[in-house]
Specification:
GO terms for molecular function: G protein-coupled receptor activity. This is G-protein coupled receptors family 3 profile domain-containing protein. Belongs to the G-protein coupled receptor 3 family. Pfam families: 7tm_3, GPR158_179_EC. The protein is built from 22 helices and 16 strands. The chain has four domains: about 150 residues, Beta-Lactamase; about 150 residues, no CATH class; about 270 residues, Rhodopsin 7-helix transmembrane proteins (Rhopdopsin 7-helix transmembrane proteins, Up-down Bundle), CATH 1.20.1070.10; about 70 residues, no CATH class. Helix 11 packs antiparallel against helix 13. The strands form four sheets. Strands 1, 2, 3, 4, 5, 6, 7, 8 and 9 form a nine-stranded antiparallel sheet that branches. A three-stranded antiparallel sheet has the order 10-11-13.
Length: about 700
C-alpha cells in the first residue's frame, strides 16, 4: 500500500476522469464521521477495475486527506473479495451477501451497511456503507462507492436492550465509588449513549435465569485524569484508596474501555438466586467461561455460573428458604373425611325420617321443613371440601355458595317453624291463627330467592379471588378475598339472626309438642354465638394464623354450628323412636293442654290415624253446617209450638195428630209425672184441647224441658 499526500507526486497514475473521482471522494470526507471514501469504476465486460480512488482522513493532526493505493483494487485486476465492504455481483446476485447487515423493516436504504469490523491497518472499529452503481438502462455493475465510518467511540452493548435508568444508576454508583468523578457533569447524550445494535443479544448470560445489565462508559479517561490531581492531594482520597490512587485510575481506565467484550453483568432474574455471587456475575468472566465450555475445557459455565430457581411461590429470594406455608395434608384430610361423613349422615337421616314419617314425633314437626333443614346442613358441611385444596377462584366461589346458601336454607326453615309458634302464641283474639306448611313455604321461597340472586350476581360480576397473605413466620398462602360483597352479606345475616333471636325470645314461654320450639331456639342462639366467637378468633386471637389453623377454625365453626343444630333438633326425636316412644304423646304437653295452635305444624294432638288436613277440614265444615241447620230447625219448632197466635194447619207438624205433635205430647205427659201433684184429668183434657186448637199454652215448658233433656 502506498500513501500519497494532498499534492500527488509523479508516481501517481492518472486516468481520464480520475480527477473527478478524487473530487467526489474527498467531498465525502467532509463529513466529520466519515474516515475513508473509495470509488471504483468496473469494466462491465470482464469485471476488472477500470479506475479507483481511495482517500483516508488522518487520525490526528491538521493534515489533509491522504490518498491510498491498495493492491486489492489495482487497475486491471478484479477487486479483492475479502474486503468487508465489497461484494461481486457475479458471486452474490443482487448483492444479498452475508457481509451486509439486513436493513430494518421501517427504513429503506439505497446501499448496504456492513457489520462492524476492526481495521488492523487503522486500529479502529469501522462500519462501512456501500452503494453499487448500475449502468444506465441495463443490469450489471458499472461502479462501486463505499465510505467508512469510525465507530470506535461508540459503546458495544451486548445486552438485549439498553435501559436508560440502569445506565443512570450505574453512573451514580460510579461517582460514589470514585470521589474525583462527582463534579463531572454528564450530558444527556452521554447518559443515553449511542449504542451499536449489531452487538445486542450477544451476551453470555443464561437467558432463562439471568438478565444482562449493561455497564456503559459514564466518564472519559481525560475527565478522570483532569480531576485526579485535585483529589489525590486530599487526605480523604488517600484514606479511601489506601494510597493506591494509581491502581484506581488504571481500573477506571479499564472500566471505560467501550470496545471490550463482557462490558455487562449477569444478574439473577426475579425468582432466581445465587449464593456465591449474590451481586451478579461479571460479563468478562462469563465470556471466558462460555468459551471454555464451548471448547470442552471446563463446565463452570453450566455448573458454577448459574442462578438457581427460588422455592415455589417466591417472587424474589436470596437463598433456598421456603416462601410458601406448608400444608399438613394428613391433618386436613382427616378433618375433611369427618366432615364428608357428617354430610353423608345428614342424607341418611333424611332417609330415616322419610321411613318414619308417619311416626308422631316426626309427623307433628312438619317433615318437609325437617328435610329442608337437613339438606341445608349437608350443604354447610361441604364448605370443608371447598376450602380443602390450595385456594383459587373456583374454590372461593364454591366456599361462598356452600357457606351462605347452606346457612340460609337451614336457619330459614327453622325460623319459619318457630315463627308459626310465635304468631299463634301471641294472638289475643278467641280465633286462633293456623298456618299450614304450604303457607310457610310460600314465605320461605322469597328469602331463598333473594340469597340466590345475591350470590349469582356476586359470582358473575365480581367473583371472589384467592389473594396471598402472610402468616406469623412470613410464609405465603392463599385466602379468599373479602370485600364489600362479603361485608354486605354478613350484615344481612346478622340482621336475619337478630330477627331469629327475637322470635325465639318471644316463644320462650310457649309450650310445644316434644318441646321442639325451645330446642330450635337453642339452635338459633348457638349459631349466633358460634359465628361471633369465630370472627373474634380470626380477627383478634389468630390474625396471622397459618393455613392449617384456619382450616381447623373452619372445621370447628362448622361442627359447633351445624352438628349442634342437628343434635338439638333431631337428637331427641331419634332417641324417642329408638326407645319405642315415637308414637307416644309428650305427657307434659297433654297435661298442659297443648292444642293445635301451639304445634309446629298446626295439628296438635292427633289420633292414631289422622286424615289429611284438607280433607278433615272439609268434613268438619260439613258437620258444622248440618248442626247449624238442626239448631235453626229446633228454634223454629220451639217458637211455633203451643203458640196461641198461630193457627196450625191441618196435617202440619204442629198438631197432635201429626207424628211430631204426638211425640211432643207424649214427652209432655212423660214430663208431668215428675211433678209432686200430677194434674187432674179435666185439666189435662183442657190442656190437650188448648194444644189441639192453637198449639200454645201449657205445653211450652214441657217441650223445652223435653228438648233440654234430649240435648243433655
Amino acid at each position: 500500500m502506498k500513501l500519497v499526500g494532498g499534492n500527488f507526486n509523479q508516481h501517481c497514475l492518472y486516468t481520464p476522469g480520475q480527477s473527478l473521482l478524487d473530487a467526489l471522494a474527498k467531498g465525502l470526507l467532509s463529513d466529520q464521521h466519515v474516515t475513508s471514501a473509495r470509488i471504483l469504476s468496473i469494466n462491465m465486460s470482464d469485471g476488472m477495475v477500470a479506475n479507483s480512488v481511495w482517500w483516508n482522513k488522518p487520525t490526528s493532526g491538521m493534515a489533509g486527506p491522504i490518498r491510498t493505493e491498495e493492491e486489492g483494487i489495482a487497475i486491471g485486476k478484479s477487486p479483492d473479495p475479502s474486503y468487508p465492504w465489497f461484494e461481486d455481483e457475479s458471486s452474490s446476485p443482487g448483492l444479498r451477501s452475508p457481509k451486509f447487515a439486513p436493513s430494518p423493516l421501517n427504513i429503506s436504504y439505497r446501499g448496504w451497511w456492513t457489520y462492524p469490523y476492526y481495521s488492523c491497518t487503522h486500529k479502529r472499529w469501522i462500519l462501512s456503507y456501500s452503494v453499487a452503481i448500475p449502468p444506465m438502462g441495463r443490469h450489471g455493475l458499472r461502479g462501486f462507492l463505499s465510505i467508512d465510518i469510525d465507530i470506535s467511540d461508540l459503546q458495544v452493548n451486548q445486552c438485549d436492550n439498553a435501559n436508560k435508568l440502569e445506565i443512570m444508576s450505574y453512573n451514580y454508583h460510579l461517582r460514589q465509588y470514585y470521589p474525583f468523578v462527582r463534579n463531572i457533569k454528564l450530558s444527556e447524550e452521554n447518559e443515553q449513549l449511542n449504542q451499536i445494535e449489531a452487538f445486542h443479544g450477544s451476551h453470555k448470560c443464561h437467558v432463562h435465569s439471568m438478565r444482562c445489565v449493561y455497564r456503559p462508559v459514564s466518564v472519559t479517561a481525560a475527565a478522570i485524569n483532569m480531576n485526579y490531581n485535585h483529589y489525590s492531594n486530599t487526605s480523604s482520597f488517600t484514606n479511601a484508596t489506601g494510597g493506591s490512587g494509581a491502581a484506581m485510575i488504571s481500573k477506571s481506565l479499564r472500566i471505560i474501555q467501550g470496545w471490550t467484550r463482557g462490558a455487562y453483568e449477569c444478574k439473577c432474574r426475579d425468582g432466581f438466586y445465587s449464593l456465591p455471587h449474590p451481586q451478579g456475575f461479571n460479563g468478562s468472566i462469563m465470556e471466558v467461561a462460555f468459551q471454555e465450555y464451548r471448547d470442552n475445557i471446563s463446565s463452570y459455565y453450566m455448573d458454577v455460573f448459574v442462578c438457581v430457581r427460588c422455592a415455589p411461590g417466591c417472587a424474589t429470594c436470596t437463598g433456598p428458604e421456603p416462601c410458601l406455608a406448608s400444608y399438613n395434608w394428613v391433618f386436613r384430610t382427616t378433618l375433611l373425611t369427618f366432615s364428608v361423613m357428617c354430610a353423608g349422615f345428614t342424607v341418611v337421616l333424611v332417609l330415616y325420617m322419610y321411613q318414619h314419617r308417619k311416626v308422631k314425633v316426626f309427623k307433628v314437626a312438619s317433615p318437609i321443613f325437617l328435610t329442608i333443614t337437613l339438606l341445608g346442613c349437608a350443604f354447610m358441611y361441604l364448605e370443608m371440601a371447598a376450602i380443602f385444596p390450595i385456594l383459587d377462584t373456583y374454590s372461593c366461589i364454591a366456599t361462598k355458595w356452600t357457606r351462605h346458601m347452606g346457612f340460609c336454607v337451614t336457619y330459614t326453615a327453622l325460623l319459619m317453624k318457630t315463627w308459626r309458634v310465635s304468631l299463634t302464641y301471641r294472638v289475643k283474639s278467641a280465633h286462633k291463627v293456623k298456618l299450614t306448611d304450604k303457607q310457610l313455604l310460600q314465605w320461605m321461597v322469597p328469602i331463598l330467592l333473594v340469597m340466590l340472586i345475591y350470590l349469582g350476581t356476586w359470582t358473575l360480576s365480581a367473583p371472589p379471588t384467592a389473594e396471598k397473605i402472610v402468616d406469623q413466620n412470613g410464609l405465603i398462602f392463599k385466602q379468599c378475598s373479602y370485600n364489600w360483597w362479603d361485608h354486605s352479606l354478613a350484615i344481612g345475616e346478622v340482621l336475619f339472626l337478630a330477627w331469629g333471636i327475637r322470635v325465639c325470645y318471644n316463644v320462650r314461654n310457649a309450650e310445644s309438642l316434644y318441646n321442639e320450639a325451645r330446642l330450635i331456639s337453642y339452635a338459633i342462639y348457638n349459631i349466633a354465638l358460634v359465628n361471633t366467637t369465630m370472627v373474634a378468633f380470626h380477627l383478634f386471637f389468630f390474625p396471622q394464623a397459618g393455613p392449617d389453623i384456619k382450616y381447623l377454625l373452619g372445621f370447628l365453626r362448622t361442627q359447633l354450628s351445624t352438628s349442634v343444630t342437628i343434635a338439638l333438633v333431631f337428637g331427641p326425636k331419634v332417641l324417642r323412636i329408638l326407645r319405642g316412644q315415637g308414637d307416644q304423646w309428650d305427657q307434659r304437653a297433654r297435661k298442659r293442654g297443648i292444642t293445635a295452635s301451639f304445634s309446629l305444624n298446626g295439628i296438635g294432638l292427633v289420633p292414631e290415624e289422622t286424615a289429611d288436613l284438607y280433607q278433615e277440614n272439609e268434613e268438619l265444615k260439613e258437620e258444622i253446617q248440618k248442626l247449624a241447620a238442626q239448631i235453626e230447625f229446633m228454634k223454629i219448632v220451639h217458637m211455633e209450638m203451643n203458640n196461641r197466635h198461630l193457627k196450625p194447619k191441618p196435617g202440619s207438624y204442629f198438631t197432635l195428630k201429626s207424628p211430631l205433635g204426638k211425640s211432643i205430647g207424649a214427652g209432655g205427659l212423660h214430663s208431668s209425672h215428675r211433678y209432686k201433684h200430677p194434674p187432674k184429668e179435666d185439666s189435662l183434657k183442657e190442656n190437650s184441647g188448648v194444644i189441639t186448637e192453637d198449639g200454645h199454652s201449657g205445653g211450652t215448658n214441657s217441650c223445652y224441658s223435653g228438648t233440654a233433656n234430649s240435648i243433655g
